Amino acid sequence: MLAAYAAGQDADHPLEGLVVGEITDPGPPEPGWVPVRVRAAALNHHDLWSLRGVGLPADRLPMVLGCDAAGVDDQGRDVVVHAVVASPGWRGDETLDPARTLLSEKYPGTLAETVWVPPGNVVPKPPELTWAEAACLPTAYLTAYRLLFHAADLRPGRRVLVQGAGGGVSTAAVVLGRAAGLEVWVCGRDEARNQRALELGAHAVFPSGARLPAQVDAVLETVGEATWAHSLRAVRPGGTIAVAGATSGAMPPADLGRVFFRSVQVAGSTMGTVEELSRLVAFLVASGARPLVDEVLPFADAARAFRRLLDGDVFGKLVLELPEA
Ligand SMILES: NC(=O)c1ccc[n+]([C@@H]2O[C@H](COP(=O)([O-])OP(=O)(O)OC[C@H]3O[C@@H](n4cnc5c(N)ncnc54)[C@H](OP(=O)(O)O)[C@@H]3O)[C@@H](O)[C@H]2O)c1
User: Fold this and answer.
1) Atom of ligand 1 nearest to the CA of 170
2) Where is the Enoyl reductase (ER) domain positioned along the sequence (predicted)?
């Protein structure tokens, strides 16, 4: 089958190990898993980490990349794939399972004509969402949904700062936060990208690190070292910094004085549950909000899509589409 997979890893030149080509369909990796014929698959920064050798041990190569897909299951149903795979017998919130894994970490991922998943790892794709829109949900949109409404526990009328303007999680947070009645502020590195965040629905935008006119109830942090100190200054006493990533580095000075003296909550969060994925889908249908897709490319152009993601030349999500079987 056609797939985009990691055949090698290089911390500095991650695209060196990327192959877009034929690979044998592995069949069900575990008994009872079901195939989903992929119609659209979105890229994530996670795929670049895998190609850099972060989170994917070299002895698992070659590994089909990708956490996100929408497609057709073996019953002919249109579905969105849930990328968090819990260990057998795990009950409850699968993101808290210490042995949980994401598709493309232990089991082949979604950037392929077929992905195999546990039978509970799909939710119905509503007809209101296009294939490309549905493919954006499992990682960036689910992560932003859980950051906003679980980790930061935000309610309509609250003010949230999103660090980063055009990333997958950042744009998802703007779309979902705006639709949920939050006051959404964005800090980005580039004036033109900040303008696009305004057009997307942010109420106000500021240069990265800028002094803000007021403090915020919560900060959504996926940038890490480059923005952490600013996030600590931006959040109000008793507010929350909800953290799901560290693109620019994971070891900033913690500044614990600010954390305890101002009773700041630091809430880590990873992906979301399959139930939250269902609620996210329902929220989009009910609100009319839709994922921001930067570009939909044919699967054969996957290498170009990866290049754009690596260059930071993306505003929203990149989606690869496959023809109907
Ligand atoms: N824990 C989880 O479940 C989870 C889920 C999804 C993602 N993540 C992590 O979250 C991070 C973002 O993922 P993504 O897919 O949204 O990535 P992405 O689409 O590549 O976006 C990267 C974002 O980081 C910002 N950025 C990068 N370097 C920066 C710097 N030096 N200063 C300020 N902003 C900077 C960019 O801001 P501009 O647009 O302003 O350039 C952009 O918004 C990644 O590290 C990823 O691994 C974690």
Assistant:
1) 43
2) 13-320
Q: Kindly report the pTM of this predicted structure.
A: 0.98
CB-ligand 1 contact for 244 (6 Å cutoff): yes
Neighbour count for residue 184 (Cβ, 10 Å): 29
Say if residue 26's pLDDT is above 90: no
What is the separation of C-alpha 242 from the centre of its chain, rounded to a whole number of angstroms? 14
Residue-wise pLDDT for 201-254, tens only, equals 999 999 999 999 999 999 999 999 999 999 999 999 999 999 999 999 999 999
- Cβ of 248 closer than 6 Å to ligand 1, yes or no, is yes
State percent of the chain over pLDDT 90: 98
Closest C-alpha to 84, from 270, 283, 318, 267: 270
Atom number in ligand 1 closest to CA 95: 3
May I ask the CATH architecture of the domain 2-136+291-321? Alpha-Beta Complex (3.90)
List, for residues 155-194, the tens digit of each pLDDT value: 999 999 999 999 999 999 999 999 999 999 999 999 999 9
Atom 8 in ligand 1: which residue has the minimum CA distance? 245
CA-46 nearest atom, ligand 1: 47
Residue 283, classified by CB atoms within 10 Å of its CB into exposed (0-12), middle (13-18) or buried (19+), is middle
The CATH number corresponding to 140-268 among 3.40.50.11720, 1.10.220.10, 3.40.50.150, 3.40.50.720 equals: 3.40.50.720
